[in-house]
Each structure stands twice: as structure tokens, then as C-alpha cells.
Amino acid sequence: MPEIFKNHLEKFIDIDEREFSAILAFFQIRKVKKKENLLVEGQICKSHYFMLNGCLRKFFINEKGIEQTTEFAIENWWLTDNFAYERGLSTEFYIQAVENSEILVIDREAQEELLIEFPKMERYFRFIYQRAYAAAQIRLKYLYDFSKEEFYDHLCKGHPEFVQRIPQYLIASFLGFTPEYLSEIRNKKRS
Amino acid sequence: MPEIFKNHLEKFIDIDEREFSAILAFFQIRKVKKKENLLVEGQICKSHYFMLNGCLRKFFINEKGIEQTTEFAIENWWLTDNFAYERGLSTEFYIQAVENSEILVIDREAQEELLIEFPKMERYFRFIYQRAYAAAQIRLKYLYDFSKEEFYDHLCKGHPEFVQRIPQYLIASFLGFTPEYLSEIRNKKRS
């Protein structure tokens, strides 16, 4: 299963078996059950998660008490509350398993040691953050530019496998819809 | 003036005078006049900008023909359309000087060579993108969580120097207000 991580590393850096074993030693492998929380609002955000399989989501609870999903992570994605993780702060977010998942977990101190011991991992994480930042900029543009309906349309066209896979009430939570309103839009699209 | 860049590098990596001169050789220094465009919608996004002084903004023109500002950059900030820059694509954005500014400019090929010749710059850019990504995640949460009025309040409290410095019609463009609506809110706050 950690081979998924090795393949991902190899997209960005050259790495041999011996190095990979040494790098993997900085991580724990963890299985999480659907609906299990990895992080809860108010906790210190200590860990960074790499997805081997399954799906996680990140959400916060808004003033109205509603879960607002801000991110999903599937195979080969990293997930954490990056601001709190980097600074060892408590988080305003929850991270929860959407499906039974297998993940690699690294703590901040271990990640820092990893980067010192294997400077090529600086290059790997530079690419990871660079792409995540570029993707977040695009999300920001969509939030300004698209109505919620347009954003849903865009999601269906651009990532149909994603819309199929994620339960509808979580798609609604991501889009800032009520589940009922999402049903309405889906029915309109079908007719 | 490039000393500002050296000071910024030194926050993240150790660097001596000789190395700094060699790193600086990958950049051009450029002066831009207020309202001058560095990037225009449809152009290939070739360059990454580091701010020595002044202020730039990034915006796109929405369906209604209105300029929607998505980012500002002041001293010590990097700015580009990261998605288009990394892939050598044409951009949907404009980058324009808000004030007369002095900037360092690096092109994608030069940045790649720089990273190969000075691997410690991988560490520097890893930090830059990591922090930019964390900041973008916070922006995303605000866009979901705050009304426009709350976002303006938050901006005034958290970054008063910024709200003072940027012309009001651009603050309005960043918040997605009309300038008239921003005036109204400001008058309400004063009374």
C-alpha cells in the first residue's frame, strides 16, 4: 500500500528503495473508518495526512451550526489545516473520513527532521505546496466568479467521478447548498 | 534595493554575499508605473514577481465586465498566476501596479535553473508556497464564513495599514462591492 506514496514521490524526485524505506519510517500508517474524526475543532493540529486510499474531508461548523465542507482529499492528496499545522496552533476545522481510508500520518517535528535528513524532500514538498496553492487560487476565482449553480455545473463537467463518489449531502455542504436545494438543481438538470 | 530580497531569503535559509549575487543574476529588476499592466488576460504567463516596494494587484474581468480583484502584493510578497506560470499557459488574469513599484522578475525557465543550481532555494520556495497555500485556505474559509460586511470589518481590524494604503475603489473590487456600497458601509461605521 505505501507503494502509492513511492509512486507519488517518483513523479517529482528520484528515489531508490533504501531511501524510500528510510523516508517511510518518518510516517505511521493508519486506517480510519467512515465518519471517524482525525481532527476536531479546538485541538492542536499536529499531523499532516497523505491519502493512500479512501476519502477525507475538511469542514468547519459555521455560525448557524451547519457543517461547511471546504476541501476533500482522495488518493495522492495531502490534507491538514496548514496554517495551524505549521505553527502548532489549535484548529477551527474538523477532518473526517468520508469513506474507510488508509492514510500516512506525519507529525510536524518528524516532517522537519525528514526535510533536514532528505533535502530532496524539500523539492517534493515545494511541488506539493506549489500545486496546492495554484489550485486554491483557482478555487478563489470560482468563488468570486461563479454562482453556486455554475460551480456545481463546473464540478459535474470537470470531475464527474468525484460527484459520483461523494455523497450528495457532502457535495451540498461543499457548495454551501442545503441538500434539498441540490436535489432541486439536479432535478432541473435532468428535466 | 535588492537587499530587501536578501533579508527575505535570510528569514528561511542561510546565504552569503557571493551566493546572493549569483542568485540575483537569475532576476531582472524592473520599475513599473502606477496603473501599468505586467500581465494581460490571454497572454502566456511567463514571469513570477517579487515585490521590493510598491503594490501590485491581480484581477480578472467578470461576465458583467467588472474588474474583480483577487489578490494584492506588497513588499516581500510574490505574485503571479501560479497555475498558468507553472504550465506555461495563457492567463485569465491581469496583474497591474497599484502604486509605482520596484520588483524582481524571474521567468519559469530561469526559476527552474535557479532551483537546480541552488538546491537551498527549494527550501526557500517550499516555505513561500506553504505559507501562500495556508493563507489561501484561510481566505477560502472567510469567503464561505463571512458576509461581505464582516469580511470588510475583519480587513479593517486585522490590516488597518492595508485599508489605509489601497484606494477605496480597489478595496471595493477586492470585496466584490460597488464603490458606492463600500461608501455606505463606511458611513454607517462612522455614525
Question: How would you sum up this structure, described in words?
Answer:
The structure is a homodimer of 191-residue chains. The longest helix of chain A has 26 residues, at 120-145. Chain A is α+β, with helices and mostly antiparallel strands and 191 residues long. Chain A has two domains: 2-134, Jelly Rolls (Sandwich); 146-191. Helix content of chain A is 50%, strand content 23%. Chain A is globular. The mean pLDDT of chain A is 93. In chain A, helix 8 packs across helix 9 (179-190). The relative contact order of chain A is 0.15. The first copy, chain A, has nine helices and eight strands. In chain A, the strands form two sheets. Chain A has a four-stranded antiparallel sheet. In chain A, strands 2-7-4-5 form a four-stranded antiparallel sheet. In chain A, strand 4 (55-61) and strand 5 form a beta hairpin. At the A-B interface, strand 5, helix 3 and helix 5 of A face strand 5, helix 3 and helix 5 of B.
Tell me the total number of β-strands of chain A.
8
Task: List unreliable stretches of 5+ residues of chain A.
Answer: none
| CATH level 4 superfamily of the largest domain in chain A | Jelly Rolls
Task: State the end-to-end CA separation of chain A.
Answer: 43 Å
Shape of chain A: globular
Q: Specify Rg of chain A, calculated over alpha carbons.
A: 18 Å
Biggest interface between chains: A-B, 34 and 34 residues
Count of DSSP H/I helices of chain A: 9
Largest sheet of chain A: 4 strands, antiparallel
